[in-house]
Design goal:
The protein is of the alpha/beta class and 172 residues long. Helices cover 40% and strands 19% of the residues. α2 runs parallel beside α4 and α4 packs parallel to α5. The longest helix has 16 residues.
Length: 172
């Protein structure tokens, strides 16, 4: 719930919804990716990716099919049974991104998604994020990396919660 103002998502006012309705909206419409992938260490990567679909009460066979499909799309198909600790940092981030995308969210929020990754792994994550945008998801990336920011179609520079400047179009 915002501290001030009104919050609308796809023509629906969100700030006045009760907590349960906001949770449902977040679970169905928004995917989250953070810099340090928060994966459940005891679960395999396919089970980690299935988690958001469990909360949405999706049929187990459909959950598994969706998770296997997106992990395959992200180049992790042969490693479905591995645990997060058995993966390199870039692969763990790909699993976290797959989990954020498995429910086909309309809005994907990524907070420092390439933090701590080498250049190649960071580029792969950015490519995967852009592929989600090409499929129709709105993508919002918070980054302090100027090279990553230059990949955006629209760049909003902020300092202490306020917009400093905005650049639009064709930064690539």
């Amino acid at each position: 719930r915002p501290d001030a103002g009104r919050y609308w998502l796809d023509g629906r006012r969100v700030d006045c919804l009760d907590e349960e309705a906001r949770d449902r909206l977040r679970g169905r419409r928004i995917g989250f990716l953070v810099g340090a992938p928060l994966l459940v260490p005891e679960l395999s990567i396919v089970e980690n990716v299935e988690l958001p679909l469990v909360y949405r009460r999706i049929d187990p066979q459909e959950r598994r099919a969706r998770a296997v499909g997106i992990l395959g799309d992200f180049g992790l198909g042969p490693r479905l049974r591995l645990r997060p600790s058995e993966l390199a940092p870039g692969d763990r981030q790909r699993v976290a991104l797959a989990r954020a995308c498995v429910g086909a969210p309309d809005l994907l929020l990524a907070d420092e998604p390439t933090r701590g990754l080498d250049g190649r792994s960071g580029d792969e994550i950015m490519d995967l994020l852009e592929s989600r945008s090409a499929l129709g998801a709105t993508l919002v990336i918070a980054t302090q990396d100027p090279a990553r920011g230059r990949r955006a179609r629209r760049l909003v520079q902020m300092r202490d919660g306020s917009v400093v400047r905005e650049l639009a179009g064709g930064l690539r």
